[in-house]
Write a structure and sequence with these properties.
This protein is mainly beta and 846 residues long. It is built from three helices and 55 strands. The protein has a 24-stranded antiparallel barrel.
Length: 846
C-alpha cells in the first residue's frame, strides 16, 4: 500500500473548500432532490440517487429518510426544560425498534432534576434512578436531541411540573467545588515629592483554602513608607453554609450585618441567615463612593479603622461602585490624597434599607465572641441575637438583644408597607456601665433611642428615596460601638468621655428628570449632647446630555487635613470624539480658590483592555500641573500607572492586582477575584478567550480563572474558539455551573485534539465507498463522512493509525484506511494536511 501526499497550497485550498461545501450543503442538495412518496404520518423521504455523482449513486440513503440520524452513544449535552437551560449532563442515546437513529434515554433521575412531578406519573418505579422513562406517560411531553448543538430539549406541560418560585435552582445542583488554595493581592505604590516619608505603599492580601464544604480565609494588609511599617490582620475565619438552615456558619473573625443594631466585629462564632440561597423572586447593600480629584490621587476607603479599598484615580470626578458589602458597620471614611500633598476627607453614609420581609419569611443572626475593632482586639465578650419575621403583606416584626461586659441593649420594632412608602419604627433601650479612672468616677448610664426609617420608589416620577433615617437618642444612650469606645477611652486614662450622639439624619435620593438628565443627593447630619452645632456631610449632583456632549454639576462638603469643612462646586463637560476617545473640561470652585483642567481619555485593544488619559490643569494657586495615567486588564493581572508634575512636586504611582489559584490541575494566575469563582479547564485550548470577563484567556495549559460568579445561581461560562489552533476542537463552547458561596468550581470543556486531514480515497479493487458513509477511528469514534468525489474531511487524527468506513454489516460493506501523517516541522503553525490513500477491504474472520 502506498500513501501519496500533496502539499500544493492552491489545490489544497480548493479541495478543502470543495469538500466542506459538499459536506455542508449535501443535506440541502438532497432536500431539493426529494421525491415525496407519502404526505402523512412519518414524513419520510426517498431520494433519487441516480442524479448524484462521485460514487454517491451507490449510497444507501435510507437512513437519511427521516432527517440526519444520531448514532447511539453517550453525549455531554446542554439540557433545557421548557426552553429554560438546566445545566449540562451526560445523555445516553439508544436505539429503538422501528426508529431510524438513536433516541435519548430520559432517566428518572433526569426528570427529577428537571423538576418534573414524578408523583403524577402513575405506575412509575422511582427507585431505579437510571431507568429510561417513556415520555408517552405524560400527554404532550416530548424530548428532542440536536446533535449539531449538543442540546437536549425536553418539553413537559406545566401541570406536570413541580411548582416553585421563579429563579429557583434545585439545591442538588449546588456545587461545593474542589479542594483549592487561592490568593488575591492588591499592590499600590504612590510617590509624591511633597511627601516627607517617600513613597506610600500598600499591599492587601486575601488568601484561603477550600476543603470540602469549608472555606478558610485570611485577610491582611501592609502599608509602609521609608520610616513606618504597619501590618493589620483584618480577619481570619472558617466558614461553611448550612443548607437545612439556609445559613452561613462562621468561626473566627466576622461582622454582624447591621440590619437592626449597629454592626460590629467579633472573634468567635456567628450563625446568620443567607438570603442568597433563596430564589431571585423571593429576595446587601454597599454605597457608591463618589468624589473629585484635582491630580492623580490616591483614594483610601476605610471603616472603623479598617482599610477596605485603596486605589489611584485620575484627575476629575471619580466613582467607586464595586465595594463589597461590609459587616463592620458605620459610615465609610474617604481620604483623597492629592499629588501636591493636600488631603480631603469626607464620609459616605452607610445605612440599611427599611426591614421589610415577605409573609412567612424570616431572618436571624446569632453572634458570640470577643469584640474587635480596627484599633486592636478587645478582651470584652459580646453576644447578639436578632430575629425578623414577615407577618403579613403589611407588617414585619423584628427585635433583638445585645449584651457585652458592661453593656446591655434590647430592641423591638416593626416595618409597615403602605401606599405612601415603607416605614420602619423601632425603639432601643440600653444600659451602659462605664468604668472609672483617676479623673472620672465609674458611672451607670441608661437611655433610649428611637429610629424612624422610610423608603419609597415612584416609577412614574423616576424617584427613588433609597434610605431616609432619623434617629433621636436620649443623653444616656450608647450604641455598642460607642459604649466600647467610651470604655476604652476611660481605660486609657482620658478624663472625658467621647461625645454621645443626640440625633442623626441620613438621606439618599435619586431622581430621574427624563431627557433633561438625573439628580442625586446623599448626605448626613449629626448633633451631639456634649457640644453645639451639627456635623453635615453631603454630595449633590446633576448630570445630563445632549446629542454632542455630556455635562454634570456637583457640590459636596469635604474635610481637609486640619478638620475644617469646605464646600466645593464641580462642573464638567465631556465630548465623545469617536474611536473610543473623549475629551472633557472641568472647573472646581472652593474656599481655597478655583481650578480647572482639560483632559483626554480613551481605550485601546479589541476588548478595550487598555485605558489611557492625559490632562492639563491650573490649580487654585494659579500654578499648572500635568497628569498622565494608563491601565491594562490582562488575563493574569490588572495594572495601572500614573505620573504627574506641578509647582514644587513630582508624582508617580504604580498598581497591580491579581490572583493565584491552586487547584487539582495545577497553579493558575488570573485577574482579581471575588469570593466565588470558577476555573476553566479546556485541555490544549491555549489562547481561547473566556467571554465572561474582559481580557480573560486560557493559559498555555488550557486553564483560566473566571473571577466572579453568583453563588446558588446558574452561571454560564463561555469560550470563544476563534483563536484556537485548527488541531483542537471544542466539543462545546458553553457550560453552566451552580457554585455554593466561596466555592472554587471547575468548568470543564472537552476537547478533541489531533491533526485536521483531508483524505482523497484512491481506487481499490472491488471497493467503492458510498456517499454518506460514516468513517470512524480505531476506538469507534466517528471522525468524518464520505462526501462526493470520494473525499473525507476528518478532525482529531493521531500521527498514524487506521480508519474504518462502514456502510453495512457484511465484510464487503466495510473497508480500512491506513494512514501516516508526515512529521511536523518544529515551530510550524498547525494547518490542514491532505493525503491520498486506498480503502482496503476488511477480511472476514471466518
Amino acid at each position: 500500500m502506498s500513501v501519496n501526499h500533496s502539499v500544493g497550497a492552491a489545490s489544497l485550498g480548493e479541495a478543502i473548500a470543495a469538500c466542506k461545501l459538499a459536506v455542508f450543503f449535501a443535506p440541502l442538495l438532497l432536500a431539493f432532490l426529494v421525491a415525496v412518496r407519502s404526505a402523512h404520518a412519518s414524513d419520510a423521504f426517498e431520494f433519487d440517487d441516480s442524479v448524484l455523482v462521485g460514487g454517491a449513486s451507490s449510497a444507501d440513503l435510507a437512513r437519511f429518510s427521516q432527517g440526519n440520524p444520531t448514532l447511539p452513544g453517550t453525549y455531554l449535552a446542554e439540557i433545557a426544560i421548557n426552553g429554560s437551560s438546566s445545566g449540562r449532563e451526560e445523555v445516553r442515546l439508544i436505539e429503538q425498534p422501528g426508529r431510524v437513529g438513536a433516541v435519548p434515554c430520559i432517566t428518572v433521575e433526569l426528570l427529577d432534576k428537571l423538576g418534573v412531578d414524578l408523583t403524577k406519573m402513575t405506575g412509575l418505579d422511582t427507585q431505579d434512578r437510571q431507568a429510561c422513562v417513556d415520555l408517552g406517560r405524560i400527554a404532550s411531553a416530548t424530548a428532542h436531541f440536536d446533535s449539531s448543538e449538543q442540546r437536549l430539549d425536553v418539553s413537559v406541560p406545566q401541570v406536570n411540573m413541580r411548582q416553585g418560585p421563579r429563579g429557583y435552582v434545585d439545591p442538588s445542583r449546588w456545587d461545593s467545588g474542589v479542594t483549592a488554595g487561592l490568593l488575591n493581592y492588591n499592590l499600590n505604590s504612590f510617590y509624591s515629592s511633597a511627601q516627607q516619608d517617600g513613597a506610600q505603599n500598600y499591599l492587601g492580601l486575601t488568601g484561603g483554602v477550600n476543603l470540602g464544604d469549608w472555606r478558610l480565609r485570611q485577610q491582611s494588609s501592609l502599608d509602609w513608607t521609608d520610616s513606618t511599617r504597619n501590618w493589620q490582620n483584618r480577619a481570619l475565619y472558617a466558614q461553611r453554609d448550612l443548607q437545612a438552615l439556609r445559613s452561613q456558619l462562621t468561626l473566627g473573625d466576622s461582622s454582624t450585618s447591621g440590619d437592626l443594631f449597629d454592626s460590629f466585629s467579633l472573634r468567635g462564632l456567628q450563625l446568620a441567615s443567607d438570603d442568597r440561597m433563596l430564589p431571585d423572586s423571593l429576595t446587601g447593600y454597599a454605597p457608591v463612593v463618589r468624589g473629585i480629584a484635582q491630580t492623580n490621587a490616591k483614594v483610601t476607603i476605610s471603616q472603623n479603622g479598617y482599610v477596605l479599598r485603596e486605589t489611584t484615580v485620575a484627575p476629575g470626578a471619580f466613582e467607586i461602585n464595586d465595594l463589597y458589602p461590609t459587616g463592620y458597620g458605620g459610615d465609610l471614611d474617604v481620604a483623597v490624597s492629592e499629588a501636591d500633598g493636600q488631603i480631603q476627607r469626607y464620609k459616605v453614609p452607610y445605612a440599611s434599607t427599611v426591614r421589610m420581609l415577605r409573609p412567612g419569611s424570616q431572618r436571624y443572626n446569632l453572634a458570640l465572641g470577643r469584640y474587635r475593632n480596627g484599633l486592636g482586639d478587645s478582651d470584652r465578650w459580646v453576644g447578639q441575637l436578632t430575629y425578623q419575621r414577615g407577618l403579613t403583606n403589611l407588617f414585619t416584626g423584628y427585635g433583638g438583644v445585645t449584651a457585652a461586659n458592661g453593656y446591655t441593649a434590647a430592641m423591638l420594632g416593626t416595618a409597615l408597607n403602605t401606599p405612601l412608602g415603607a416605614f420602619g419604627l423601632d425603639a432601643t433601650h440600653a444600659i451602659t456601665q462605664l468604668p472609672g479612672n483617676a479623673l472620672v468616677p465609674a458611672q451607670s448610664s441608661s437611655g433610649q433611642s428611637l429610629r424612624l426609617s422610610y423608603s419609597k420608589t415612584l416609577p412614574e416620577l423616576g424617584s427613588t428615596l433609597s434610605v431616609a433615617t432619623y434617629r433621636y437618642s436620649t443623653d444616656g444612650y450608647y450604641s455598642l460601638p460607642n459604649a466600647m469606645s467610651a470604655m476604652q477611652s476611660i481605660e486609657d486614662g482620658f478624663g472625658t468621655r467621647p461625645a454621645s450622639q443626640r440625633s442623626a439624619l441620613q438621606l439618599t435620593l435619586n431622581q430621574s428628570l427624563g431627557k433633561h438628565g438625573s439628580l442625586y443627593l446623599a448626605g448626613t447630619a449629626r448633633s451631639y449632647w456634649e457640644r453645639t452645632g451639627s456635623d453635615v456631610q453631603y454630595q449633590l449632583g446633576y448630570s445630563g446630555n445632549t446629542r454632542y456632549f455630556n455635562y454634570s454639576l456637583s457640590a459636596m462638603r469635604s474635610q481637609d487635613t486640619f478638620g475644617r469643612n469646605e464646600n466645593q462646586l464641580y462642573a464638567t463637560v465631556s465630548v465623545p470624539l469617536g474611536n473610543r476617545v473623549s475629551m472633557s473640561s472641568s472647573a472646581n470652585f472652593g474656599a481655597r480658590g478655583s481650578s480647572g483642567q482639560v483632559s483626554m481619555n480613551g481605550t485601546l485593544g479589541e476588548h478595550s483592555q487598555y485605558g489611557w488619559g492625559a490632562s492639563l490643569a491650573q490649580n487654585a494657586d494659579r500654578s499648572n500641573s500635568t497628569n498622565l495615567n494608563g491601565s491594562y486588564r490582562g488575563p493574569f493581572a490588572e495594572m495601572n500607572a500614573s505620573a504627574g508634575s506641578g509647582a514644587g512636586y513630582r508624582q508617580t504611582s504604580l498598581g497591580v492586582a491579581g490572583s493565584v489559584v491552586a487547584h487539582p490541575g495545577g497553579l493558575t494566575f488570573g485577574q482579581p477575584t471575588g469570593d466565588t469563582i470558577a476555573v476553566v479547564e479546556a485541555p490544549n485550548a491555549a489562547g481561547a478567550e473566556v467571554t465572561n470577563q474582559v481580557g480573560l484567556k486560557l493559559d498555555g495549559r488550557g486553564y483560566a480563572i473566571v473571577p466572579y460568579l453568583s453563588p446558588y445561581r446558574s452561571n454560564t461560562v463561555d469560550i470563544d474558539p476563534r483563536q484556537l489552533s485548527t488541531s483542537v476542537e471544542l466539543k462545546s463552547t458553553s457550560t453552566e455551573v451552580v457554585p455554593r458561596a466561596g466555592a472554587v468550581v471547575m468548568a470543564k470543556f472537552d476537547t478533541v485534539t489531533g491533526q485536521v486531514v483531508l483524505i482523497d480515497l484512491l481506487p481499490s479493487k472491488g471497493i467503492h465507498v458510498p456517499f454518506g458513509t460514516v468513517v470512524a477511528d480505531e476506538s469507534g469514534r466517528p471522525v468524518g463522512v464520505v462526501a462526493q468525489g470520494q473525499r473525507i474531511f476528518t478532525r482529531g487524527l493521531e500521527e498514524q493509525g487506521s480508519l474504518v468506513a462502514k456502510w453495512g454489516e457484511s465484510s464487503d460493506q466495510q473497508c480500512r484506511i491506513n494512514f501516516a501523517l508526515p512529521p511536523r516541522k518544529e515551530g510550524s503553525k498547525p494547518s490542514y494536511e491532505r493525503l491520498s490513500a486506498p480503502c482496503e477491504p476488511v477480511r472476514s474472520s471466518n
